[in-house]
Amino acid sequence: MFKNVVRSKRFGLVAAIFVVLFILPLFVPRFFVYIFALIYVTSLLAMSLNMVVGHGGLFQFHHGVFYGVGAYAVALMLTKSSLPMWFGFIVGPVVAAIIGLIIGWFCVRLTRLYFGMLQISLGSLIWAIVFRWYSFTGGDDGIHGIPMPSLISSLNSSYYFILIILVICLILMYMILKSPFGNTLQAIRDNSQRCEAIGINIKRYQLGGIVVATFFAGVAGVLFVVLERSVFPDLLFWVLSLEIFIMCLLGGWFTFAGPLLGAAITVALRTFVGRYTEYWTLILGIILILVIFFLPEGVMGFFQDLFKPGTKKVAERGKG
Amino acid sequence: MILFVVCAGLSFVLGVLRIPNIAHGTLYMIGAFATFSITKIFAGSTGFWIALIVAPLLVAVVSLVAERVLFCHLYQREHLMLLLFTFALSLILGDLVKIVWGAEYKSVSAPTLLKGSISILGASFPRYNLFLILVGPLVAIAIWLFTNKTKIGKISRAAAVDREMVGVLGINVSWVFAIAFVIGCYLAGVGGALVAPTVSITLGMDHTLIIEAFLIVIIGGLGNMWGALVGSLIFGITHSFGVLFWPQFAIVFPYIAVVVVLLLRPKGLLKSVW
Amino acid sequence: MLQVESLMKSFDDFMAVNGANLTVDKGEIVAVIGPNGAGKTTLFNLITGALKRDRGRIVFKGEDIGELPPYEICKKGISRSYQIVNIFPRLTVFGNVQVAVLSHQRRSSNLFRPAQGIAVNETKSILESMGLSDKEKSIAGSLSHGDQKILEIAIALGNEPELLILDEPTAGMSPEETQATMELVKRLANQRGLTILFCEHDMDIVFSIAQSIMVMRHGQTIIQGSLEEVRNNKEVQEAYLGGE
């Protein structure tokens, strides 16, 4: 497969982009380095959501919980325990995936909307607990000043660390999506009834997809801590979950890189519009409405349609 | 009880229009802020009573504008889009509130009639709470009368169940939806006005409220007004319970109750229109 | 191979299936016929596990499969195609069949190897025998209706079933396509040793390839038998052929 990937035209473009990103810190002010790192973290999170929503068709309404759990797990490990720091980095995603498994197991038994509702309630429960547990989690203040291994403690080094992990995760996600597992997940999204008829245990695959996605969300949480050195309950609040959803929508659900684009746009907007006005959420709201009205497949979907006309119409006809 | 009023509105909109209206919380917030402004203009107790009537109307007008201009084009879309759209709307309205009223805390004081407490059976109850306990059922009865006795109410119920048939019968479905939506939002405004004297009015109140409102509506049964009542009661009671026994984690109790209900009866306790 | 006894299924108050009996022997081609609403599709849904029966027995290869979920029943060796085209519109034709093949080979949960390279031969051979090889890379949603119905059957074959259930396989097809499809089905039955159970409205087809015919009306089995027996049965003539 790698031979095919390397030969494709897109790979050249993607590789060029990554080379640029790698040398970015050399000629760009600190603030931009920070913003880019933030974009990487957010896009990993958005991509992880898209695994279950865009490719799996599940109503994962409270994905932020797993992100927050991963972040808190690593924060707590680094501040409260005396285990080696790198250990905490592994604990984060693992804990997130375990919570994902538990919550997922309950939710998978339900369909669509009810799946989402149960998840919101379970996620909110976790938020409420973290929000109030001052002694352990710092309550609504969160935890600040989290120590980092010296290897990655400067801004530039954490930038590289985050970028490298992002690239690794993207490669893994791409492989998973193109694997039989990923194909099956997409088939379930498109026609779950038929999948059952061809021998697939839907719930098991959906649960598997959830665990994978929440694992990556946990990784994003860890990266967040690396960048910000603090955690707060807002990471677990539903508004963030909805924002991630929006990033996927903005970028395009059904494409691979859509959410990445969506995350980049959102973070960029928030930063740059935020410089000029306090009212950036207003702008975001307006843009969102425009997208809903005019670009239901998201920005990526729009471009895809330009270059590969007919794919969109085909999908619509297939649904009929 | 305040939760009930808000949730009834949310449930109503959900049931008739199938819209999970996230902006509902923001409309509630607008109601509260509007109440603040009105009480500033009409100082004294009468201010509150006026606000109780005018603020929800203001909210209703805003919602009507939103509906006519934007919403009505989107009814054909999937629910997910509608939900995201209402979220966008709540972001916009939320910032509009910030623009009009600024970011500091505001407060409204209750009218003299309802200030202070009365003692009943040896325990003292804030008068305002008693007022709310009265208002709640009144609103419930009003809604019930509306949906069951008036023509529009019956049409809305029919439209909730079968949109196309109602259209075929020659009734302008679009206006029915508009009216239903406005009524639901009016209730949000009422909720906002009612809550104004009891809490400090801030910018985040829409977000905290809406998640609670949605959870209540879900456990009560989507679109079911009595369900909203049951849900709000459960929420309120478990919260008080929590305050009594473990104040630090008081807010956790209602969430646990919600989770328990959903695990046992995922579709809600009472019949849902969906 | 398959035995259905006194099967009953009601939806609220409506008895969709009210005493259905069916026997299918290995290697046979059996047709189920009956007027619209007789309960044929419901019967198929019950056999494949998409619906749960109220009462009665469904025995496949000696085992009662009435309580199993659809994916288990599929693993036992029953595969079906649907009356209304039920494919994966966003995947390619190749992808559509491949999903079924991978499921059969228990390779669907493979996480890291790219799907493109797995089970290629089996998938291609199915596509070839169904005449879809040239359309391999097309997106399924863009095929013509007739081709989609053939793809329907191809997907069902991906599971290498022993019993293939076809729900109105030629509905909506032109006469030539119908003819071609049924030839295909007959050939498949011979080549792969499949047992076939299907339902159809087109009597010509039924009479030309079915070895045993079961007639349903109002959810009940009126009779099951050979061509002659069915043709001469009075009740069948009344119910179905309208006394022609």
Report on the architecture of this protein.
The complex is a heterotrimer of chains A (320), B (274) and C (244). Chain A has 320 residues and is mainly alpha-helical. In chain A, 78% of the residues lie in helices and 0% in strands. Chain A has a domain at 35-237. Chain A contains 16 helices and no strands. Chain B is globular. In chain B, strands 1-2 form a two-stranded antiparallel sheet. In chain B, α2 packs parallel to α4, α2 (23-41) packs across α8 (173-195) and α9 (205-220) packs across α10 (225-245). Chain B has 274 residues and is mainly α. Chain C has a domain at 2-77 and 161-241: P-loop containing nucleotide triphosphate hydrolases (Rossmann fold, 3-Layer(aba) Sandwich). Chain C is 37% helix and 25% strand. Chain C contains 9 helices and 10 strands. In chain C, strands 6-7-8-3-9-10 form a 6-stranded mixed beta sheet, with helices on both faces. Chain C has a 4-stranded antiparallel beta sheet with strand order 2-1-4-5, with helices on one face. In chain C, a hairpin with a 2-residue loop joins β1 (2-11) and β2 (14-24). In chain C, α3 (93-104) crosses α4 (120-130). The two termini of chain C are 35 Å apart. The A-C interface holds A 1, 175-176, 178-184, 186-187, 190-191, 193-202, 205, 208, 212, 254, 310-311, 314-315, 317-319 and C 48-50, 69-71, 74-75, 79-80, 82, 86-91, 95, 98-100, 102-104, 107-118, 139-142, 155-156, 158-159.
Largest interface: A-C, 35 and 44 residues
Q: What portion of the residues of chain B fall into strands of 2 or more residues?
A: under 5%
Using the alpha-carbon principal axes, give the shape of chain C.
globular
Largest β-sheet summary of chain B: 2 strands, antiparallel
Gyration radius of chain B, rounded: 18 Å
DSSP helix fraction of chain B: over 70%
Radius of gyration of chain C: 18 Å
Give a count of the beta strands of chain C, DSSP E runs of length 2 or more. Answer: 10
- Distance, first to last CA of chain C: 35 Å
Question: According to CATH, what is the topology of the domain at 2-77 and 161-241 in chain C?
Answer: Rossmann fold
Q: Helical amount among residues of chain C, as a percent range?
A: 25-40%
Beta-strand share of residues of chain C: 15-25%
| Highest-level CATH class of the domain at 2-77 and 161-241 in chain C | Alpha Beta
Q: Tell me about the biggest sheet of chain C?
A: 6 strands, mixed
Total of helices of chain C: 9
Class by helix and strand content of chain B?
mainly alpha
